[in-house]
Amino acid sequence: MKIILAALTLLFLSSCGNSQRFISIGTGSQTGVYYPVGGAIKQLVEDAPGNTLNVSAKASLGSVQNINDVMNGSITFGIAQSDRQYQAYNGLSNWNGDPQTDLRFVFSLHPEVITLIAAEDSGIVTAADLKGKRINLGSPGSGHRGNAIAILETLGIDPDEDIQAESLTIKECASMIQDNRIDAYFFTVGHPNGSITEATTGRRKVRFIPITGMESLIETSPFYAETQFPVKLYPQAIQTGEVESIGMLTTLVTRSDTPDDIVYAVVKAVFENLDSLKEQHPALQGLTPEGMLKGGNAPLHPGAEKYYQEVGLLEL
Ligand code: GLU
User: Fold this and answer.
1) What's the predicted TM-score (pTM) here?
2) Cα of 29 to ligand 1 centre, how many Å?
3) Where in the chain is the domain with CATH 3.40.190.10?
4) In a mutational test of the pocket of ligand 1, which residue from 86, 189, 229 has the highest number of ligand atoms less than 8 Å from its CB?
């Protein structure tokens, strides 16, 4: 079947006279930040002078699905949390004993914060109050499910025994909390985003729960860093000030056999139009060319390396 598909693809490509090549980017839920960011990258690549790439930005469950889809060849690029990139490349967590050594880093994007949001009437004020409550950890394809489990375990809360764990997709979460079907949910995400805007504007009041006391987790998992986000990004939220938590960077990944010229074209379109990319979403405001080379926990793809060397971001 695979061979027939490959032959059909080749036939299709040659019938296009090779003038157009099709690539795809795995993003996330329409209510997250990956989805609009993937759409913005698609636009920059397609608008680049002399472009021959036809790009589709696909909705997905998040980092874990994107990495798996990149590795099985069903998508060309994927947006993924830098911690999942590390775990996939090194054969940990979801990829326990099965290192994805062909995974390649392209560049990093916005910072993400492990965000915990709880209904006011649930009585959850600190993360320790999660015990016994209905908590959405995330779907298995998401990046935040692993973060939620790591945080609960660091707090001494057993996700299988001490809470009623749910595995909903992120697009369901805002309505599930509003309908009183869950008490809280985790979402590792850039701010602001659609899911949390929706959750904070409903009739059931919600609050952000700080995630602190994570020193031991950061020590064993150095891809995490302490961070915070301002509540004012959600004008209807009942708190003020900053919410303390931990987070990581978002990254773009691909597979080692993605042709160098395709990766080069994508990187060039993004780096040469960074100001326009930054305008596409508030979470992207802090991007800098130097910062976007950080967060690589898998080797850099040579097509990206070529561009970074050409513009002096990397030494030759
Ligand atoms: N970090 C989330 C995940 O990997 C997705 C965040 C987003 O869609 O912006 O599942």
Assistant:
1) 0.93
2) 7
3) 2-111+249-310, 112-248
4) 189
